[in-house]
Amino acid sequence: MVTAWGLLPAAHAQAPKFLWAAKAGGTYLDWPRGIAVDPQGNSYITGIFRDPARFGNTTLRSQGDYDVFIAKCDSAGRFQWARSVGGSGRDFGFSVAADAEGNCYATGDFDGAATIGARSFNAGDSYLAKYDTAGALQWVQPVRGVRLAVDGSGNCYLAGGFSSTQATFGEITLTNSGARLLFIARYDPTGAIRWAVGAATGSASVWATAVDEGGTTALAGDLEGPTTFGQSTLTNRGPSDIFVARYDAAGALRWVRQVGGAGRDEAPDVALDRQGNTYLTGTVKGPATFGETVLTNQGSIAFVAKYDPAGSLAWVRAVGVGSGTSHPSIGGLAVDPGGASYLTGTLWGTVTFGVNKLTSIGSYDAFILKLDSAGDLLWVRQVGALGGDEGWDIAVDNAGRAHVVGAFGEVVNFDGIQLVEAGVTDVFVAKLDAFVYGPPLSIQRLGTLAVITWPTNAPGVSLQVTPSLTPPVPWQDASTTPAVVGDQNVVVEDAVSPSRFYRLKN
């Protein structure tokens, strides 16, 4: 007999531990805006800083009021490089993305004259820049729109809007016949514009975009007046409602949906999974309507909604609920290959997450949570101390490890890793483990053989064996070296007598 003893499963709301945490910043206010992760587990962040600011061993100095930073951490949390972008004014970094080869793409805009490489920009201009894996600038383009998504091949999809009569994208001109034209534009890996299309016309703004490997895109944003998407015109019910829309690989509308209630509703992020499902997150003032489904919670609600490929609502969850002056806000959303969703944001006062009530230690704290593919809350974590702490964005790697970027004040602790601010507010970037206690251990019998497997994304874990469970249990490391097959460690043993028991041990 051969029996598998995996590491014990977690109780509900037990969260995984932080594997590492790093800080960046200087003596002034430093703020993050976005994070991305590549297939190798490196993370990329962007935001703003004021002179001087340290990123590991690199010190950046701003040319004007606030400049943009773009930085890379390796899979162990060590800063590999940091670059600054800016000019004479207060500049902003908005989005960051990575492709399969570890190239980094970033967007932002300028408040004054600025230069990136050999290209000059004026006040009000926006940019799209590409850096290679070593941080060398490959190209930069003046663009409209700063909401960025990048596919694995390095094609860039930008979304935004303009209220002028026309806007040009290289040799492509889009004409606006309403209050505002929302658009999607695609740039190839060399920075050349491939196409640009109008996505909607009316009183709306885009806050997030996402792309899948097939080049289909999703947009999310707010409605502040009648807005037409294809043949559908949406009208907000309160000061602002939320829209989420899907477009095919040529930028043609597939479907659009509206979310909201009587209050001001916001949607800061959208994500796609490999099965073509769309995930939307935001905050609404309850009660709020999602098609025929109503979230009846009163107060401020942080939600995640899942739509199937045809745009039908699969489920919606009120993941965080506050009342009175207590409320949650959303920073970012990510989805792993299995369809689990990860969320980060900020909580003020006491906010309810499932059966968990979290109360901010300082003025406000960061939170991180995970839902399974059915929308059920698996765990939630709070990050905070006496200062103000915020969760700004989140990404998840292929191993299911969440990478989070945020801001902190004073001192904050990540499972024994203590970060101390250098100035007023600094940036943190941190990575959570994929497992609560440990990875799953599986044994399958094939004739007279036992095939023992566990995930390769579990460093520091070893297979142990014992002939008996009578205390004291004589656990010993297994003598067979595991083979790696795909994403699994594999050990093949004889399944006949005598009996043996196996476990994974940190």
Please describe what this structure looks like.
By secondary structure, the protein is mostly beta strands. Among the domains are: 144-264, no CATH class; 442-505, no CATH class. The strands form eleven sheets. Strands 15, 16, 19, 20, 21, 22, 23, 24, 25, 26, 27 and 28 form a twelve-stranded antiparallel beta sheet that branches. A six-stranded antiparallel beta sheet has the order 6-5-2-39-36-35, with no helix packed on it. A four-stranded mixed beta sheet has the order 1-46-42-43, with no helix packed on it. The radius of gyration is 24 Å and the shape is globular.
Describe what is shown at a glance.
The protein is mostly beta strands and 506 residues long.
Structural class: mainly beta
Query: Unreliable segments (pLDDT under 50, ≥5 consecutive)?
Result: 2-13
Helix tally? 0
Largest sheet entry: 12 strands, antiparallel
Number of strands: 46
Helix content: under 10%
How large is the radius of gyration?
Answer: 24 Å
Overall form: globular
Kindly report the oligomeric state of this protein. single chain
What is the mean pLDDT?
Answer: 93
Strand content: over 45%
Gap between N and C termini: 24 Å
List keywords for this structure.
506 residues; mainly beta; 6-stranded antiparallel β-sheet; 60% strand
Can you lay out the helices and strands and say which pair or pack?
Elements: E1 2-5, E2 18-26, E3 31-37, E4 43-49, E5 53-55, E6 58-60, E7 67-73, E8 79-85, E9 92-98, E10 104-109, E11 114-116, E12 119-121, E13 126-131, E14 137-143, E15 147-150, E16 156-162, E17 166-169, E18 172-175, E19 181-187, E20 193-211, E21 217-229, E22 232-234, E23 241-247, E24 253-261, E25 266-272, E26 278-290, E27 293-307, E28 313-322, E29 327-335, E30 341-348, E31 350-353, E32 356-359, E33 365-371, E34 377-383, E35 390-396, E36 402-408, E37 411-414, E38 417-420, E39 426-432, E40 442-446, E41 449-455, E42 462-466, E43 476-477, E44 483-485, E45 488-494, E46 500-505
Parallel strand pairs: 1-46
Antiparallel strand pairs: 2-5, 2-39, 3-4, 4-7, 5-6, 7-8, 9-10, 10-13, 11-12, 13-14, 15-16, 16-19, 17-18, 19-20, 20-21, 21-22, 21-23, 23-24, 24-26, 25-26, 26-27, 27-28, 29-30, 30-33, 31-32, 33-34, 35-36, 36-39, 37-38, 40-41, 41-45, 42-43, 42-46, 44-45
